[in-house]
Amino acid sequence: MRIALTADHNGIALKRRLLTFLGAHGHAVDDRAPEVRAGEVVDYPPLCEDVCRRVLEGHAERAIVIGGSGSGEAIACNKLPGIRAGLCLDLFVAEIARANNDANVLVLGAKVLSPDLAERITAVWLATDFRGERHQRRLDQIAALERGESLL
Length: 152
Hints:
- The chain is an alpha/beta fold and 152 residues long.
- Helix content is 45%, strand content 16%.
- The protein is globular, with a radius of gyration of 15 Å.
């Protein structure tokens, strides 16, 4: 699978580990993270936009974004219509993000996850297929909200 990967200053070490992990599992990874010097702070919204656009334009099938908690990154990613970013801090949520929500962006929090758990979450997220059926109806409703339509 083609995966766009990025991280802010909080996620650089985990990004390096996942880069190796993903490559070892046969994925083509586009490392989009900037070079970060010790003590340097990097704003995450442009990083999120970059990898999300890679997905939306078909240059990547999915993206992974790593921040400190991941909360702000998930918010930023989900501002782009067509992006369904899931902040996954455990295996159950990673499975549901894919199976029920067809998440095309995985968001991880480097300050709240061990590297081992982050790898396991990534593996589950990549291996889980979208279930479709009633879940597709909900994705269609989300798309309507993105277009500014009311569901009420």
